[in-house]
Amino acid sequence: MAMMTTPLANALRIHARDVPEQSGLADDYLKLLGEGVHAFVRERREGHFTGSAWLVSRDGKNVLLTHHRKLDRWLQLGGHADGDMDLRAVALKEAEEESGLAGLSVDEAIFDLDTHWIPERGDVPGHWHHDVRYVVHAGDDEAFAVSDESNALAWRGIAEIANDPSADASLRRMAQRWSEQHAGA
User: Fold this and answer.
1) Predicted confidence band at 185 (pLDDT cuts at 50, 70, 90)?
2) Taking a C-beta distance cutoff of 8 angstroms, is the pair 117, 132 a contact?
């Protein structure tokens, strides 16, 4: 099989090199990417790509979390690609829509990968989300607005999340990675 050279494929290879503990997931994502646009639509019931934002405050000490209406948990902002194969753009769009914040910027590199199960809800069967997460930076105005997708939004201390055993495991992992990358900053 020829090696894919899409921006996402290249970013996944770089992430696998830079975050070796996620190299297996990156390989799985590269295989899924081989399905083309079909892997980016929610109609792919076995599972599909999603894009998420680790939305950090200007000072880098806090992250904006959503109390997700459907999942009833505190999570990072993000959502379905709906056919958009640029998951970096998806992460930025979801962060803007779900936070109401303007002036956001998104890093080029993938920050984290996470495959997680979404339980059955109504007529939508349970399925996997293959989530590609990017760091999104707040602009000058950090006053958010809660969207219909959230029960609430809150800026939460990254150090607090990293040390909170009750926090979602992937949030803890991202908080720990962020803290390691920005120690002494």
Assistant:
1) low
2) no
Structural domains of the chain in order of their starting residue, each with its CATH number: 7-181 (3.90.79.10)
| pLDDT single digits (tens) 53-62 | 999 999 999 9
88 vs 93: CA distance, rounded Å: 9
Structure tokens, 169 = 């495991």
What are the strands, taking DSSP E only, across 37-126? 47-56, 62-68, 74-80, 105-118
What pLDDT is recorded for position 5?
A: 77
Would the pTM count as exceeding 0.85?
A: yes
Contacts for 81 with CB less than 8 Å, ≥ 6 apart: 40, 41, 48, 49, 50, 51, 87, 90
The residue count of the chain comes to 185
Alpha-carbon torsion (140, 64, 78, 145), positive or negative: negative
Check pLDDT > 80 for residue 174: yes
In a 3-state reduction of DSSP, which class is residue 15? helix
- Would you say 129 and 118 are in contact if contact means Cβ atoms under 8 Å apart? yes
